[in-house]
Write a structure and sequence with these properties.
With 281 residues, this protein is α/β, with parallel strands linked by helices. It contains 14 helices and five strands. The chain has two domains: 137 residues, 3-Layer(aba) Sandwich (Rossmann fold), CATH 3.40.50.300; 98 residues, no CATH class.
Length: 281
């Protein structure tokens, strides 16, 4: 096992962990391109509001929540719950009394002024969220931040939607090229394994989705290290991803032969790898 770990591509170049892991690092709170979104949430949370952060899978919603946890720890009590957990259904009262541990459960003690962060809220049902408004009105919950793929498609209780309102729906925005380069450089520094132009090509190939970009950077750098190369080149790009252009170019080429080419495109860019593990985004 130790020998296998030594042979991991990132271990060979001095990293202990994979720098392109899709898990939000608990020690790294840098967020790229979402300053306005964070500023808005940092204002709303202490004010006692309900907000909904909307964005596709893999665009950094969970990382935003992790930043809020770091920001408000010590200043308020935080509850974080990932709604895509298949082993547990949301029970707001259990989450509240669980903050006091054994004695809280025994005596059903309810804390006050809690900040509740609910990730991947598209998994919730109206019944799951009905009690949130009750505990919000009772003062046990001070503020709630939901995240999800599409606000209009989330089955929140009507009382929750009324409390969120139009102003409470915030959207994760797409990163520009400079932010994407900074995002990758934050992971690997100035290593020349992959240059800025290749990062932009991989960003386009990834459909401008941060998680898919990390997965493709991982694949590219692994290829370079394991093949004894010094840098990921355009030829490597063509060979590894079986394409001569960006995602948009491939889309145009898909039109003449819909059936066979669609299958190939899905195999090269599987959607299932966008679904997060528990607690990720």
């Amino acid at each position: 096992m130790a020998e296998e770990e030594e042979n991991l591509w990132f271990r060979k170049i001095g990293f202990y962990n994979n720098p392109f892991s899709i898990k939000p690092a608990p020690y790294d709170f840098k967020i790229f391109g979402q300053d306005e979104l964070l500023d808005e949430l940092i204002y709303k949370v202490p004010a006692g509001t309900m907000s909904f952060v909307e964005g596709a899978l893999g665009t950094g919603k969970t990382t935003v929540l992790k930043h809020l946890i770091h920001r408000f720890k010590g200043k308020g009590q935080i509850i974080f719950f990932s709604c895509n957990r298949i082993d547990s259904e949301l029970n707001v009262e259990e989450l509240l009394i669980g903050k006091y541990g054994f004695w809280g459960r025994l005596f059903k003690m309810h804390p006050k002024n809690m900040i509740v962060l609910l990730d991947e809220a598209q998994e919730l049902s109206p019944e799951n969220t009905e009690r949130i408004k009750y505990f919000f009105d009772q003062g046990n919950i001070k503020s709630v931040v939901f995240t999800g793929i599409n606000y209009d498609g989330v089955n929140l209780h009507e009382s929750i939607k009324e409390r969120i309102g139009e102003d409470g729906v915030l959207k994760v925005r797409s990163l520009n090229d400079e932010e994407v380069i900074a995002f990758v450089r934050n992971r690997i520094g100035d290593l020349n394994l992959i240059n800025d132009e290749m990062i932009k090509k991989l960003w386009s190939l990834a459909g401008k989705n941060p998680r898919r970009l990390l997965q493709r950077c991982d694949k590219a750098c692994k290829y370079v290290v394991e093949n004894g190369e010094s840098e990921f080149t355009g030829e490597h790009f063509k060979k590894l991803f079986k394409t001569t252009g960006t995602t948009e170019t491939k889309t145009k080429k898909l039109k003449p032969k819909k059936k066979s080419m669609k299958k190939e495109a899905v195999e090269e860019n599987p959607e299932e790898d966008l679904y997060p593990e528990e607690g990720e985004d």
